[in-house]
């Protein structure tokens, strides 16, 4: 029996093929497959290109996709994969779900995912999953790359009004590709800067730590992330000694983990491997 794990995100799609004995048969990468941010045609093309490039067809597929949390997204991915692999047993999950399985495995715990957005996934003792956060840049994603970038812009604009931190102001404007920080509101309105470009300047803020105002921004971000993890743990009724792990561009930062102040175990493996582990478990359970 051959297993295919797919990690489908907004920037790239990773595919991992393994045999029954867990030997790797192929590993490859294609373009974005988030059907919401990239569009259905681009997502379908990325998935198709990856599957058609495999050396042999899988018997079981588990795909974890950004955008699969909605019923219409679930149906989109299921239809897409079934049309390419009509004889394969198929499981569709969210990208956060397979990231949890890859990082922690099939045991109870909490995974914090912090990149452009932020979300915590917990698995209860009975095997059920729950989430806290992940409500998007407009109403949530506290402590995320976008949140840090947005706060940096806010602080820079306020600093411009008070005539302070000229170096920080210049760094933020340059990170956004703007000649002046005062152009930021108009650039956002016109679409010249967006969620991704704002999140991208978070790395520059992290690099400036422990200097202010970076220290204040990151300390507040860490507070939000700590609350996110502990809310998931308490909701899942897990003990304080439970396994916690953290992934993502912000989460993997050596600066942020100590600021969050919780014990994190390194992830065991990546999301594509997590997808295969989940598929193997589902097949065994059935």
The rounded Rg comes to 20 Å
Shape: globular
CATH topology of the largest domain: Nucleotidyltransferase, domain 5
Overall pLDDT score: 93
Task: Output the helix-strand order.
Answer: EEEHEHEHEEEHHHHHHHEHH
Q: Give the terminus-to-terminus CA distance.
A: 15 Å
Count of helical regions: 12
E-strand count: 9
Q: What structural class do you assign from the helix and strand content?
A: alpha/beta
Order of strands across the widest beta sheet?
3-2-1-4-5
Describe the structure.
- The chain has 286 residues and is α/β, with parallel strands linked by helices.
- It has 2 domains: 3-105 and 269-285, ATPase, nucleotide binding domain (Nucleotidyltransferase, domain 5); 114-266, ATPase, nucleotide binding domain (Nucleotidyltransferase, domain 5).
- Helices cover 46% and strands 19% of the residues.
- It has 12 helices and 9 strands.
- The protein has helices spanning 40-52, 71-84, 95-104, 136-139, 145-162, 166-176, 184-190, 195-200, 202-208, 214-235, 256-260, 271-285; strands at 3-8, 13-18, 24-30, 60-65, 89-94, 109-114, 118-123, 129-133, 243-247.
- The chain has a 5-stranded mixed sheet. A 4-stranded mixed sheet has the order 8-7-6-9, with helices on both faces.
- β7 and β8 (129-133) form a beta hairpin.
- The longest helix is centred in the last third of the chain and has 22 residues, at 214-235.
